């Protein structure tokens, strides 16, 4: 059993049974293993953006990791946009990225790249397998990382010689840690607020709260309490409403967002791992141009949402709005 087959069998044993692929010559042994191993479904995509987008959608619908197979650094680079969105939405994905043989990298052949450097901004976990004997264990670690609540992107880089050299058997994937539970007091407080002040409250859906079951529950809560529902903009692009409940997206621009929130006295965050930053440019300003006046200063609570933001420094000849 070569390293590639040990990795595919480890993926199947760990519950990853679909691999969306756009392979090149460096990944041929892994492709052959996908064909040999029962239980693994291989889906070919003609562009890496299709591959990563399909893996994102699959994992969101089934709430389980999908795998991708990408060709070297440029192939991974072509799929970064959808991996970025998947990371923001806490989607579990295992990326397998081919690499030149370890002893060939020094010759800087075409398509040689810093794959780990490309992968890190869109991955929670990144590793390059050093040998065929360690590929299976690295694959199990990647699955465990992807299944870490609420969902993560794991990228395993597979040099060609670690795929074709003799590997080990199947590595066992550790059970995922229990999902973090929201404090009971916070749940009771939110329920009390919604029951007493539903008309003045809003459910802000983000992260894993945008999956099918949470959206259905949010619709039931809104029907019972009269509260409104909205979604943080960055996580809603691919599954807004999920066919069950229409979830209006909070506007990205400051003034329209303030208009939506003007009557909201109680905001309940659902699925947020940290406080939600609503606005990209809280200290927006407007240079004088064609008789226009500077926009009024934002209120302090908006400015504190992004304390590192700085006022616009554009010249009068540039666009008036940031």
Task: Walk me through the structure.
- This protein is α/β, with parallel strands linked by helices.
- It has three domains: 3-164, Rossmann fold (3-Layer(aba) Sandwich); 184-270; 282-322, no CATH class.
- It has twelve helices and nine strands.
- The protein has helices at residues 3-13, 28-36, 48-62, 72-78, 80-88, 115-119, 135-146, 160-164, 184-197, 212-225, 254-261, 300-305; strands spanning 18-22, 41-44, 66-70, 93-99, 125-128, 153-159, 201-205, 228-231, 266-270.
- A six-stranded parallel β-sheet has the order 2-1-3-4-6-5, with helices on both faces. The chain has a three-stranded parallel β-sheet with strand order 8-7-9.
- Helix 7 (135-146) links the parallel strand 5 and strand 6.
- Helix 1 (3-13) crosses helix 2, helix 1 (3-13) packs parallel to helix 7 and helix 3 runs parallel beside helix 5 (80-88).
- It is elongated and about 65 Å long.
- The termini are far apart.
- Residues 234-243 and 284-322 have low confidence and may be disordered.
């Amino acid at each position: 059993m070569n390293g590639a087959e040990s990795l595919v069998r480890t993926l199947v044993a760990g519950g990853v049974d679909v691999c969306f692929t756009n392979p090149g010559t460096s990944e041929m042994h892994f492709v052959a293993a996908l064909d040999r191993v029962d239980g693994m479904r291989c889906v070919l995509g003609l562009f890496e953006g299709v591959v990563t987008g399909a893996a994102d959608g699959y994992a969101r619908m089934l709430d389980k990791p999908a795998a991708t197979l990408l060709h070297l650094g440029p192939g991974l680079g072509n799929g970064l946009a959808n991996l970025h969105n998947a990371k923001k939405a806490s989607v579990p994905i295992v990326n397998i990225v081919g690499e030149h043989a370890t002893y060939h990298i020094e010759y800087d052949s075409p398509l040689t790249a810093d794959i780990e450097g490309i992968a890190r901004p869109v991955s929670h976990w990144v590793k390059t397998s050093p040998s065929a004997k360690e590929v299976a264990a690295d694959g199990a670690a990647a699955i465990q990382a992807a299944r870490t609540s609420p969902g993560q992107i794991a990228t395993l880089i597979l040099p060609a010689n670690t795929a074709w050299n003799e590997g080990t058997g199947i590595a066992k994937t550790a059970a995922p840690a229990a999902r973090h539970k929201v404090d009971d007091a916070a749940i009771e407080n939110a329920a009390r607020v919604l029951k007493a002040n539903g008309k003045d409250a809003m459910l802000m859906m983000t992260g894993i709260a945008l999956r099918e079951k949470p959206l259905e529950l949010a619709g039931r809560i809104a029907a019972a309490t009269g509260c409104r529902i909205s979604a943080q903009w960055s996580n809603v692009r691919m599954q807004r409403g999920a066919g069950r409940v229409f979830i209006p997206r909070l506007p990205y621009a400051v003034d329209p967002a303030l208009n939506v929130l003007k009557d909201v006295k109680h905001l309940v965050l659902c699925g947020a791992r940290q406080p939600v930053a609503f606005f990209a440019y809280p200290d927006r300003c407007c240079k004088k141009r064609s008789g226009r006046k500077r926009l009024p200063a934002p209120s302090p609570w908006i400015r504190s949402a992004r304390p590192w933001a700085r006022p616009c420094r554009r010249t009068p000849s540039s666009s008036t709005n940031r």
